[in-house]
Amino acid sequence: MPTLCRLFRAARATGLLVCLLPLNQALHAAATPGPDEFNNCLAQIRVQAAKAGVSAPVVEASLEGIEPDTTVLDAMAHQPEFRTPIWDYLAGLVDEQRVTDGRSRLQEWAAVLTAAEEKFGVDRHTIVAVWGVESDFGRLLGTRPLVRSLATVSCAGSRQRFFRGELIATLKIIESGDFSPSALVGSWAGAFGQTQFMPSTFLRIAVDFDGDGRRDIVGSVPDALGSTAHYLKRAGWVKDAPWGYEVKLPPGYNGPSGRRHKQSLAQWSALGIQRIDGRPLDGPASAGLLLPAGGGGPAFIVFRNFDAIYAYNAAESYALAIAHLADRLRGGRGFVTAWPTDDRGLSRIERKEVQERLLERGYDIGTADGMIGPKTRAAIREFMGTRGIATEGRAGGRLLDALRSTNRPAGTPR
Ligand code: CA
To answer: Distance from the CA of 191 to the center of ligand 1, in angstroms?
Structure first.
């Protein structure tokens, strides 16, 4: 999962940070505060926490002996080497494995999902899709102690005010008894649990959906699913309405587009836009036209419920991943229109295969974990370079084909 950056624009629900920084926007790790500076900062936070009503024993027990975590500052500053194309992003988030996993979760948690649909009016496939993308159905929750991470970014870097608010929210969570400090682990930015809520979002939105008296989005699947449904309802989800669907543009379309450029379906129809199978547009009165790759790729009419999903993480690519996964979970297929590329994106299993084949060739990329990080990209650049192909290190279908076709027996030179 990419870890970065949308957070800097909007403090939304979650820590699934979609990386779309421009190439020229260099970021440097904030300087680690020295002991005096850090202690002064913590003293201010103690005052702020007391004003916010957190009891002194909770503040002391939580902040006692805390030191800044420089790896958090590195993670905050990490700069992606290139923009992730939408087809790579979707190929990794909505792959066959995720669809299979999601369908089994739909069965396993059917009773809870029925209850969530009844209480919040939010469709079960969308709830499960969010769960799958946020934490791989509870498998990836993050491992960093929340208080230490948030204390670090509360005292260094450019978003200290925002993160202090999240740290105070974390202390309030501890005060409430929903979690002990040691149980609160998550992303460097403080997102935690199966829903990857930020602490302030947890306080506003999380629900005790299994009725045991605790709001436990870490250990309780019902609480996580109920809390996700509650979030989407609060974000304006319309019961029994679609998020949108794929459409066909007339050749050479250069009319209006955009999620926020809402107009009536009659207006979109008058521009020559049809459902992908040629039927006329139908659904809620007001819609936007989403062109994630410009006019040359798949196009979508999107309704209010797409905006509700967008609210979860403030990125259109994220919302499309959730919406598409939800469609796949209810039995739908992939998009009809191809992405404008001849070098397809890879599933998580294929990304792992890329790494295993690079390791076989002796490239030092650590372990094959399916995450394409700087080391893997460097190895890809080098490998493709030996074949006379200059790349930025992207892992796509062409690379995988090349690795498969030229596999090297062990012990021979690269
Ligand atoms: Ca509970």
So the answer is: 19
Q: How far is the CA of 308 from the centre of ligand 1 (A)?
A: 25
The residue behind tokens 């009809």 is 336
pLDDT exceeds cutoff 80 at 201: yes
331-383 tens-digit pLDDT: 999 999 999 999 999 999 999 999 999 999 999 999 999 989 889 999 999 99
Ligand 1: distance of its center to the CA of 10 in Å?
Answer: 28
CA 49 and chain centroid, separation: 29
Backbone angles phi, psi at 113, to 5 degrees: -70, -35
pLDDT at 170: 97
Q: Please tell me the distance between residue 183's alpha carbon and the centre of ligand 1 in angstroms.
A: 15
Q: Apex CA 387: angle with CA 382 and CA 388, to 5°?
A: 90
- C-alpha 196/C-alpha 200 separation (Å) is 12
Query: How far is the centre of ligand 1, averaged over its atoms, from the C-alpha of 237 (Å)?
Result: 23
Ligand 1 centre and the CA of 198: distance in Å? 18
- Alpha-carbon distance of 289 to 279, in angstroms, equals 17
